[in-house]
Amino acid sequence: MSEVAGRMSIQAGAHVLEKAQGGRGMLLGGVPGVAPAKVVIIGGGVVGSNAAQMALGARAQVTVLDRSTQALARLDKEFNGAVKTVYSTQDSLEEYVLDADLVIGGVLIPGAAAPKLVTEAMVKAMKPGSVLVDVAIDQGGCFATSKATTHEDPTYVVDEVVHYCVANMPGGVAMTSTYALNNATLPYILKLANLGWKQALKQDVHFLAGLNVHAGQVTNEHVAKALGYAYLLPEIAVANADA
Q1: How confident is the model over 47-73, as pLDDT tens digits?
Q2: Per-residue pLDDT for 109 more than 90?
């Protein structure tokens, strides 16, 4: 779903950049003699890399910010230097966000709320008609001015900056999302059905890592920390199930 959301973020952002949608009236890729839009992607994970693919394909000027040097190196290699990679600091984030026409928020922390990386002051200082697309809105959003919207009413404006903060973005392309999710999960569903849940958890570390709650106890460390619950190691939960 992060792949879908990352690709959709550019599709949605390009549309919202149109004047009739409240944007600056820019074509993402420009035309000969007219500069393309500046797309800034915060986060170089699955969302960010898929957004970069789409933005680069549309001939936009693309910059990705991340705090992982490994992620930046991977993106530099993947796009052969066509995407600018920048180490994310408070100063670099502010510099690139304020100069952007379209900003994609793709910072997701598993099981935890997204960090508020773009402040209200930064939004206020952005160019009028620029666009923010918050892919992290399901985890609370990574822009201070973000609030969840719907596919029916996807945008709102704060300080002349258009916000696209649709929760469950992949739901807008339900056919693609359904097939993608089915392709990813079917092998696990079959294995779970054939082995049963206890044996599947014992044999497959990925199943074990995916266990969130067992017998009323939280077995996902991130979820437990975020919600203030006691954390139980999933290995212990499975062992207790046999007792």
Answers
A1: 999 999 999 999 999 999 999 999 999
A2: no
Q: Is the pLDDT reported for residue 110 higher than 80? A: no
Question: Both 149 and 42 in a single domain?
Answer: yes
The total number of structural domains in the chain stands at 2
Residue 185 lies in a domain: no
Please indicate, yes or no, whether residues 87 and 8 belong to a single structural domain of this protein.
Answer: yes
48 lies in the same domain as 109: yes
Using the 3D structure, point to which of 172, 204, 229 is the last residue of a domain: 172
Q: DSSP string spanning 136-194?
A: GGGGT-SBTT---B-SSS-EEEETTEEEE-BSSGGGGGHHHHHHHHHHHHHHHHHHHHH
The predicted structure's pLDDT at residue 108:
78
Give the tokens for residue 192: 């779970």
pTM greater than the 0.90 cutoff: no
Across the chain, what does the average pLDDT equal?
93
Task: Say yes or no: 208 and 158 in one domain.
Answer: no
* pLDDT over 90 at 238, yes or no: no
